[in-house]
Design a protein that fits this description.
The structure is a single chain. With 137 residues, the chain is mainly α. Helix content is 73%, strand content 8%. Strands 1-2-3 form a 3-stranded antiparallel sheet. Strand 1 and strand 2 form a beta hairpin. Helix 1 runs antiparallel to helix 2, helix 1 runs parallel beside helix 3 and helix 1 packs antiparallel against helix 4. The protein starts with a strand and ends with a helix. The relative contact order is 0.18.
Amino acid sequence: MNDHIHDEGEAKIVSGASARKAAKWFNYGTLVAMAIPLPLAIFWTGMSMLIYALNRHHPNPKVGYYTQWAAYRFYGVAGAAVAVAIFFPPSMVYYLTIWVIAAVILVPWTLYDLYRINHDTWDDVLITPDHLEAQHS
């Protein structure tokens, strides 16, 4: 059984520590993708969709909030980079320039978001059977 999800009869508890960790996943992935753009940025673009899907509707609404804002930032910058890069001549200088611009935008904002997550209050969340049924219907 997961260390951070505890059964209480039919209800389950998702710990605040588990929620905090989940809220950081998207941000950590973005930092790694910016540190090593090829091939990790490409892989992160796909993997980030899975992380978003897993965490956007987390039982603790703060996880969804932080994940959604991290996704807005990453996908906005990535989309703008693709829209601009389509017109680049075949030279690595242009692609490295757009990567540097993306990193300058994403890294400080992502670090600030991690700071906010670490300093937020994370309470345990009780998941009742009614809540579980609503998620599956």
